[in-house]
Design a protein that fits this description.
Radius of gyration: 21 Å
Bound molecules: pyridoxal-5'-phosphate
Order of helices and strands: EHHHEHEHEEEEHEEEHHHEEHEEEH
Structural class: alpha/beta
Shape: globular
Strand content: 5-15%
Largest sheet: 7 strands, mixed
Distance between the termini: 55 Å
Amino acid sequence: MRKWEDNLRRVEPYIPGEQPQSQDVIKLNTNENPYPPSPKVEEAIRSMDLGTAMRKYPDPESGKLVRALAEYYGTDRDHIFVGMGSDDVLATAFMSFFNSDNPIVFPDITYSFYPVWAKLYGIPYKEIPLYGDGFLLRPIDYGYIDPDGDGITDESGEAVTNGGVVIANPNAPTGIMLSRKDIEKILIANPDVIVIVDEAYVDYADESALPLLPDYENLVIVRTFSKSRAMAGMRIGFAIASPRLIRVMNDVAQSVNSYTKSATSLEAAVASLQDEEYFRARIDDVLRTRARTVMELKKRSFNVLPSSTNFVFAAPTWTTGEDLYDGLRERDIYVRHFSKERINNYLRITIGTDEQMNDLFAAIDDIHA
Ligand SMILES: *Cc1c(COP(=O)(O)O)cnc(C)c1O
């Protein structure tokens, strides 16, 4: 073995859903939007002076998009951080805010990138089991103010020493939503650390943690253009938080790479924010298909968790998750299966078009015939 072998970094990377390059498959495995973005997005890119856009470095401050987002969410520019997809935003947030010796906490079943970043950056972490067969997140597991005046404790009375909190809300891959009131309970129990709420799917849910921002300077809300805005290929995500935290994120991000957002992506994102009507209409389309999908899966004896997202998490009662995954794949339908304890009988199925879902139901019937 060569000497330098000792110094090579060994990491276990996140495994993304497959991106089959054939156009002939039905792809319900990465929660992409089945509809394209607003036609205004494509128009905006076509009307750019592309020669100049390609020749020059893009705006490192993403000024135009930061202004557009501030206006859209009714806040000030110094509350907004823009990154290359929300994975980039989350990775930056982990680097920026989790520098304590105490473990950060997140659920045992959640976005599987969180433990990957924690290990990569040497952040100690603890996974808190979701409660029961319903996979519920109980705020009390993240600490609460002890009524006897012993500060913030867990149920056994031990002092809570979280180094930070990360919650995907709605959660992935379960699709289950925590109310804003419950998010606030977690914030109340964790006043001394940063609480990240990953709202990748919130546009398909009933409420956001946004209204809590003025009251909690330690709250960071992370969002993406990849799902509801149908722009996964453009790699745009953002965070909304107090100016103090946004400054730190910008300093950390600029210490890695000054130019992460391409000129075309920034222009596309701004245009997307300017077509609210189209945006709402496509969300309604997905919600309608989601309701139908839940019904059709239940008819076929699936256990379906309540979804506040553009996917459903469902387990067949008549076969294993893995066998069904294989059967669908043989029929060119890709869904996501996680070989992980507690959830290995479930499939995460992205809501596609009605036509795609009809093909899915037909394939299930064929497999279960
Ligand atoms: C899809 C997803 C992301 C990342 O999306 P980007 O494409 O990097 O913006 C982040 N968190 C969760 C929970 C997701 O499902």
